[in-house]
Design a protein that fits this description.
With about 280 residues, this protein is α+β, with helices and mostly antiparallel strands. It is built from four helices and 14 strands. A hairpin with a 2-residue loop joins strand 7 and strand 8. It starts with a helix and ends with a strand.
């Protein structure tokens, strides 16, 4: 009986030791768990504190930037738009350019010279004006010419024809000095006028001469006259011979009487369609 009791006591003591060891293990686990939880809570609190600190820094930076923008806006005044000018615009009317000659006494005079030497006389006079210092009294020297179409041997050609053969035009202020320079130019025979008193051209005469010189269409040289026979060189009556009955210089037309089937028939033609027979 005593042996059995000893065995039971030993079993009980071992069980109590195991139970004590289990409870100590549980206490250690609990302590470890509490420590781990405490560490996690501390880390979380630290992270939260850092996040709050960063947020506060960001808010302070944003606030500082906003304050700086407001200060800049106050420091730079807004540009004011210019007020519209209520003064009405003044319209300046330009006067048309005047075609009249300057009112300093200059006029156009006709100077007689040797026929066929008009251009040479002009050159001589321009040279004398230059060398004798007369540009302030003699302003221009002109040989009036116009373009003309001439028909010769059935061929057309454009030539430059002198409007007034044997004459040139001089624009000048007439006095003793200017008269002397022009009158003593080689090739000049005198001024057109009464005696020794040169007569200036009227403004309408000058305009007419200038108009002829500036005409765009060349004039057609007429080598025939009323009553003369002409040959038709163009059109349905080519090679017919007829007699000139009328000449229209403005329209550049000529009326020719042509014998057609034994009857005189009037035919109107251009100057360029006929030539002197």
């Amino acid at each position: 009986m005593s042996e059995n009791e000893n065995e039971h006591q030993e079993l009980r003591s071992s069980e109590s030791q195991e139970m004590n060891q289990g409870s100590s293990s549980e206490e250690e686990l609990s302590t470890l768990a509490s420590a781990s939880i405490g560490e996690n809570e501390g880390a979380i609190q630290d992270d939260a504190a850092q996040i709050e600190a960063i947020a506060e820094i960001d808010l302070e930076e944003v606030s500082m930037e906003t304050e700086q923008e407001e200060e800049d806006a106050i420091a730079e005044p807004e540009s004011e738009e210019p007020e519209p000018d209520e003064t009405p615009d003044t319209v300046v009317e330009e006067e048309p350019a005047s075609t009249e000659e300057p009112d300093d006494g200059r006029l156009w005079y006709v100077v007689h010279c040797y026929s066929g030497y008009e251009n040479k006389v002009r050159h001589n006079l321009e040279h004398r004006i230059e060398t004798m210092g007369m540009k302030d009294k003699i302003f221009d020297v002109v040989v009036p010419t116009e373009e003309e179409i001439e028909i010769k041997e059935g061929k057309r050609r454009t030539i430059e024809r002198r409007v007034f053969p044997g004459y040139i035009l001089v624009q000048m202020i007439m006095d003793e000095d200017s008269w002397y320079v022009v009158r003593n130019t080689p090739g000049v025979t005198g001024f057109v006028g009464m005696g020794n008193d040169p007569t200036p051209l009227r403004p309408e005469e000058v305009s007419s001469i200038v108009k002829r010189m500036e005409a765009e269409a060349p004039r057609i040289k007429v080598t025939f006259s009323t009553g003369q026979q002409v040959r038709i060189i163009d059109g349905p009556f080519n090679d017919f011979i007829g007699t000139v009955s009328a000449i229209d210089m403005e329209r550049a037309k000529v009326r020719v009487m042509v014998s057609f089937f034994g009857r005189e028939t009037p035919v109107e033609l251009d100057f360029l369609q006929v030539e002197k027979a």
